[in-house]
Description:
Elements: E1 2-8, H1 11-18, E2 24-27, H2 39-51, E3 55-59, H3 65-78, E4 83-87, H4 90-96, E5 102-106, H5 127-130, H6 139-146, H7 154-162, E6 165-171, H8 177-185, E7 189-193, E8 195-201, H9 206-210, E9 228-231, E10 238-242, E11 245-250, H10 254-257, E12 266-271, H11 281-291
Amino acid sequence: MLKFSAQAENLKMVEESVKSHVDAVRFGSELCERKIPSLQTLKKAYNLIEDHDKEFIYVTPRLPDQALEKIREHVDFLSGREAKIVVNDLGLLNILSDQPGLNLWLGRFLVYLPARCPWRLGIKDMFFLTLSIKLMLDRRKVADLFYQTNLNYEPTVELFKQHGIIGVDLDWIPKCFQSYQALADCGLQLSIHLYMIPVALTRKCHTARFLGIRRLDRCDKPCYNRFFRIVHDKLGVEMFLSGNAVFRLEKPSPKDLEKLNSVESLELVIPINPITKTTSYKEINNVIRNLKPT
């Protein structure tokens, strides 16, 4: 079954998302603890999404210790509501694994994928990549490793399952779809983020540094509306700095989506973001229209 969701980080984004044709709305940031909502804001988002008959999904970032108590309040509210929570922090996963009434999803920042690397885009073939290790592996084996995740090892999947994980967030990288199928075969439900592929994530926010924001506790979250475009002169690779992460873009296509036809449960995540120019419900619907099978 194919369904679409929208990734919304604030109430304004939620308001646009619920007007669209998505099946679910993800609320919260997968990147920045400064964007963790208050309990009151979380309740407003939950009620708004529920009132529009959409599935509510709560997204959490990598967390410092001081943010865990705040998340505990949120979990207490969501517990028993069969809420789906996306976890990007192993400490939080350890806490939530004993909490009943939750559906836990492994966030994509706990999934390691070499193919996110942008430098391969500027290399015409695999020769330079394999030169230093050609005595150990042939080119095909290198490519196979490059397009796998850290979850393509069954004991790792079983470990996460023991901690309550039933699904996993991944990136739209078509050459990785074969390895994604293996995860589905292991019983995991798949959620694939469209367009924005993370290249790097830092603990310190470079967006704040470039904009001269010295006190992060007073950050007005300019990354809701602003980003920096980065181009590597020699390789010609285009990337984007948003908040504390660097992304590259990969445009989804219906042809590539056909490669996932055998996946029984598939969620496609549409980012609400100025980088992808999907900031209104009409733009969200355009993405769905272009990808939804007729």
